[in-house]
Amino acid sequence: MELQGSCHCEKVKFTVKSYTPVPFMRCYCSICRKVGGGGGYVINIKGQYDTLKVEGMEHVKVYRGIKDKSLPKNKQELCESRRHFCGECGSMLWGYEPQWPEWCYPFASAIDTPLPEPKRPNCIMLKYKSNWANVPGPEEADLFDEYPNDSIESWHKKNKAFIEKE
Q1: How many Å apart are CA 140 and CA 94, to the nearest integer?
Q2: DSSP conformation class of 109
Q3: Is the backbone of residue 160 left (phi > 0), alpha (psi -120 to 50) or beta?
Q4: What domains are there in the chain, each with its CATH number?
Q5: pLDDT, tens digit, for every residue of 95-108?
Q6: Sheet of strand 60-63, all strands in order from the earlier edge strand to the far edge
Q7: pLDDT (tens digit, 9 = 90+) per residue, 47-94?
Q8: Of 63, 161, 159, residue with least CA distance to 107
Q9: Residue 20: closest CA among 144, 157, 147, 166
Q10: Rounded to 5 degrees, what are φ and ψ at 114?
């Protein structure tokens, strides 16, 4: 499925192919909730990095979070993950993890293409959530203190939401 996305000011537009387009995983980690907006979590989708096409790349900036801010400043390290955002309006666009160079992770909030609705979301990294963040109960969502064992692809396959490669 080809996804089309953009920032709020529309200076950055992009397309990317995804075989796993259901926005099912809500990440409540401290980095995601800080950079992703006011809801207390972020939702990413997995896309094929080699299909990512960007208009307005000159407006894109990259942020790398700090792994553990509780350490003294001289012991802190940057995360490997890169979060791309519009330098004009601040909209989060996609993430990239160098350890998985074949993938990128568009923020669901940046996607303009209608997306499939998840039947049951995963709420992850709850160990790090803000006390005020709204989390559905176990009757509505699958809850995880850290990362679940299922990958994005295996979740899609298990839930019959995986789009077979063309």
Answers
A1: 27
A2: G
A3: left
A4: 2-158 (2.170.150.70)
A5: 999 999 999 999 99
A6: 47-48, 103-106, 92-96, 82-86, 60-63
A7: 999 999 999 999 999 999 888 778 888 988 888 899 999 999 999 999
A8: 63
A9: 157
A10: -60, 130
